[in-house]
């Protein structure tokens, strides 16, 4: 087992691992116990009582956080003609067609979000093996396959996040940076939680959220009482 650093041990001493904290307490602790020397990302992680093998129990989507993520997203758009011009005007970092497909196939991946108009999905489909494993493939469910490319670009630049349950029913999402005021992190957390709660499949029996935690990059996991949200 790897030896814990002095900073990690000090952080762990401040957290009662047997306790589920209120959202306000958990956010405050996450900020207090952060020891990264950079503006660390704050993330939340849910374990849900779902079976993603069932079509009606898949949790996936996107939302715009009220206070953004604190991260500047590099947005790539597959579009042509007027839609390409719209994307550029909205602030897209990269806009193109087959030229971008070739560049990505050659190993270029300097972007965070991929958006495409529906007519471009035939060529974007060639990138499935590259974009799919990185969760970058455009999808109508996350609003990244759309004719309204300007809105999609603006939302991605303005704090849009995507989420998806993995095979074990875990969902992770960014809710901001350690430098954010605590109340803004709490507001983002509650907004995302509302989305997760509303996404509860009708066929789920018993407790839906079985575990919930907040953490920072390199930081300590802090259990959150979902009833406090």
Give the topology, please.
Layout: H1 6-13, H2 23-33, E1 41-48, E2 60-64, E3 75-78, H3 81-90, E4 94-96, H4 98-105, E5 113-116, H5 121-124, H6 128-131, H7 149-157, E6 160-164, E7 170-177, H8 182-198, E8 209-216, E9 222-223
Parallel strand pairs: 3-4, 3-5
Antiparallel strand pairs: 1-7, 1-8, 2-6, 8-9
Describe this structure in words.
With 229 residues, this protein is an alpha/beta fold. It has 8 helices and 9 strands. It has helices at 6-13, 23-33, 81-90, 98-105, 121-124, 128-131, 149-157, 182-198; strands at 41-48, 60-64, 75-78, 94-96, 113-116, 160-164, 170-177, 209-216, 222-223. A 4-stranded antiparallel β-sheet has the order 7-1-8-9, covered by helices on one side. α2 (23-33) crosses α8 (182-198) and α3 runs parallel beside α7. The radius of gyration is 19 Å and the shape is globular.
């Amino acid at each position: 087992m790897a030896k814990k650093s002095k900073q990690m041990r000090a952080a762990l001493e401040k957290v009662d691992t047997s306790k589920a904290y209120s959202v306000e307490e958990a956010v405050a602790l996450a900020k207090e116990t952060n020891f990264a020397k950079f503006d660390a990302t704050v993330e939340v992680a849910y374990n849900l009582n779902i079976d993603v093998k069932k079509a009606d129990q898949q949790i996936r989507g996107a939302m715009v956080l009220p206070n953004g993520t604190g991260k500047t997203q590099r947005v790539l758009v597959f579009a042509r003609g007027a839609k390409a011009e719209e994307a550029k005007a909205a602030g897209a970092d990269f806009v193109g067609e087959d030229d971008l497909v070739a560049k990505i196939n050659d190993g270029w991946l300097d972007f965070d979000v991929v958006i495409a108009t529906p007519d471009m999905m035939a060529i974007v489909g060639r990138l499935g093996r590259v974009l799919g494993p990185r969760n970058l493939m455009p999808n109508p469910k996350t609003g990244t396959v759309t004719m309204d490319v300007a809105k999609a670009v603006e939302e991605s630049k303005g704090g849009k996040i995507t989420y998806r349950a993995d095979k074990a029913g875990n969902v992770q999402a960014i809710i901001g940076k350690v430098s954010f005021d605590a109340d803004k992190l709490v507001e983002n957390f509650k907004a995302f939680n509302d989305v997760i709660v509303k996404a509860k499949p009708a066929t789920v029996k018993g407790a839906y959220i079985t575990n919930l935690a907040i953490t920072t990059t390199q930081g300590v996991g802090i259990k959150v009482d979902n009833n406090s949200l």
